[in-house]
Design a protein that fits this description.
Elements lengths: L13 E5 L7 E7 L2 E10 L13 E8 L19 H15 L11 E10 L4 H22 L12 E9 L2 E4 L3 H4 L4 E8 L4 E8 L6 H26 L1
Parallel strand pairs: 4-5
Antiparallel strand pairs: 1-2, 2-3, 3-5, 6-7, 6-8, 8-9
Helix pairs in contact: 1-2
């Protein structure tokens, strides 16, 4: 039995609330159980310097955790002068996930930055951020189209993410912090609406995992992400 009493294939309660940041071109507050992430998409009317003159845009992300998002206060990374390696890895993952379903030439020479700020953390912050960031990006593109900044929707597909792991209960989906901190294997899956794999991160912790374990986690992830994408579709309907 999982500590949360959930079935192995049962995710935490998930919700998406759009339009929560008044000034952002697109925003979404996503909740995976007690993990809450605010995603806000901002349009910048110029691409990164290294893309200038190439006729295409860019989508990137920044990630941060509020000091009291966790049980004890975490020092703000801005006070140390640079983001941690973990933060850089997560924000690059979010950016890659969004670009995988974005037709960048349709943006023109512009950039969209999606800020993902963790308000409350209980495991799975990166997967919640990716799932909510897609909605924030969608609304940003809709905002641009309504003002004739772009002619077509650059989004080519949905994308969402979920964590899985191998615990005492076997392969399970959507780990909270209690499970994540004791899992024998933890993994993150990013999958598009069409079923394409964007990224798979899987790491042995207490023991090595087998190909059967990986296959079982992927099966759980596909089912869970299918539900997340249906929720994304319902949110924008």
């Amino acid at each position: 039995m999982r500590p949360s009493k959930r079935a192995p294939d049962e995710m935490r309660p998930v919700s998406f609330e759009r339009g929560v940041a008044r000034y952002a071109e697109g925003s979404c507050l996503v909740k995976f159980g007690n993990t809450h992430v605010l995603c806000a998409a901002s349009l910048e009317d110029k691409p990164p310097p290294w893309l200038r003159g190439q006729g295409r845009g860019w989508v990137t992300a920044e990630y941060a955790m509020l000091p009291r998002a966790t049980h004890t206060r975490t020092r703000r990374e801005s006070s140390s002068g640079k983001p941690s390696g973990r933060t850089q890895e997560i924000q690059r993952l979010i950016g890659r996930s969004l670009r995988a379903v974005t037709h960048l030439p349709a943006l023109g020479e512009r950039q969209v930055v999606v800020d993902c700020d963790v308000l409350q953390a209980d495991g799975g912050t990166r997967t919640a951020a990716i799932s909510g960031a897609w909605l924030a990006l969608h609304d940003c593109f809709q905002w641009m189209r309504s003002r004739s900044i772009i002619k077509e929707n650059p989004l080519r597909d949905h994308v969402a993410a979920v964590s899985c792991g191998v615990c005492d209960a076997g392969p399970v989906i959507d780990l909270d912090y209690g499970e994540d901190s004791t899992a024998k294997t933890d993994a993150n899956f990013v999958i598009t609406g069409g079923g394409g794999l964007v990224e798979v991160q899987s790491t042995a912790e207490a023991a090595v995992f087998t190909e059967a374990d990986l296959s079982a986690m992927l099966s759980l992830a596909r089912a869970g992400i299918g539900k997340l994408i249906e929720m994304q579709k319902a949110a924008i309907a």
